[in-house]
Amino acid sequence: MRYLLTCIVLITLLYVSACTKEKPNSHFQNESQKPKNQENQQSSNKDLHKFEKMNVSNKTNAVKTVAQPASISVLINKKYFLPKNYVPKDLVYPSVSFIFKEKIEKRKMRKEAALALNKLFTGAKKDKIYLSGVSAYRSYVTQKAVFNRYVKEDGYNNARKYSALPGSSEHQTGLAIDVSSSTGKCAAQSCFANTKEAKWLQSKSTNYGFIIRYPKGKESLTGYKYEPWHIRYVGVSLAKQMKKRNITLEEYYNVYPVSK
Ligand SMILES: [Zn+2]
């Protein structure tokens, strides 16, 4: 019974937010990477091959560092980390509104993603959906500072339960952004799920090359709870393919679950 309760507590702690640097990530657990979905086996094998080329190695259960961090379709999660010193070379300011005014780091995205985001916001506006950016790029240095502050306040083990280890945040790719309504209401909070903005993102973002990175019902595959506000640029073709197959990036590369 005690063991069971401990397990439930551990599982709950693992499914925390991937976004807000104030309250987010737990850390990975080592898991096997055996494919589960037989239906997608054939294409998954092809994808796995692509993945092996993309990464240093995926033969062990240890944390890995991706070999091509600048790839538009790079997989970053609790097992696959960005290199410590990786800073995207083409960070720019998207020309969309944010819930803050300052021209600071978290407003930036990689150029291709920023241009796609501009189109997405314009498309939303045409549908009378008014969006704002909440948080986009976050550097390794920023994440490290945040994580270290928590370690100081709360101890390393506790900090790991709610804050992303530097290198494991998708925001460091410059391809991810948290989005809210223009009022900022429910920004990066679960109540965002019930808004018309979230519904629009769910149905339309793939048209602009973005995916809902941590979908509902896929928590055990991605290692993160449902985050309707966190969109990730992967390009139009891949985004549409993933939506059609109803798969996450972990499934696309056939490397899941990342935590349990
Ligand atoms: Zn996020």
Main attributes?
4-stranded antiparallel β-sheet, 8 strands, two-stranded parallel sheet, Muramoyl-pentapeptide Carboxypeptidase, domain 2, alpha+beta, binds zinc ion
Walk me through what this model shows.
With 260 residues, this protein is α+β, with helices and mostly antiparallel strands. It has one domain (2-252): Muramoyl-pentapeptide Carboxypeptidase, domain 2, CATH 3.30.1380.10. Helices cover 35% and strands 10% of the residues. It is built from nine helices and eight strands. The strands form three sheets. It has a four-stranded antiparallel sheet. Helix 4 (140-154) crosses helix 5. The structure holds zinc ion. Zinc ion (ZN) is lined by residues 18-19, 171, 176, 178, 230. Zinc ion binds next to strand 6.
Layout of strands and helices, then pairs:
Layout: H1 2-14, H2 41-54, E1 64-65, E2 80-81, E3 91-92, E4 109-110, H3 111-126, E5 131-135, H4 140-154, H5 156-162, E6 176-181, H6 196-204, E7 210-212, H7 219-222, E8 230-233, H8 236-245, H9 249-252
Helix pairs in contact: 4-5
The chain binds zinc ion.
Zinc ion is lined by residues 18-19, 171, 176, 178, 230.
Instruction: Output the CATH topology.
Output: Muramoyl-pentapeptide Carboxypeptidase, domain 2
- Category by helix and strand content: alpha+beta
The major sheet is characterized as: 4 strands, antiparallel
Cα radius of gyration in angstroms = 18 Å
Nearest-integer average pLDDT: 81
Bound molecules: zinc ion
| Terminus-to-terminus distance | 19 Å
Q: Please report the number of helical segments.
A: 9
What is the CATH architecture term? 2-Layer Sandwich
Helix coverage percent? 25-40%
N to C succession of SSEs = HHEEEEHEHHEHEHEHH
Assign the CATH class: Alpha Beta
- Share in β-strands: 5-15%
Number of strands: 8
Whole-number count of domains = 1
Uncertain regions spanning at least 5 consecutive residues: 4-16, 20-60
Biggest sheet, spatial arrangement of strands = 5-6-8-7
So what's the overall shape? globular
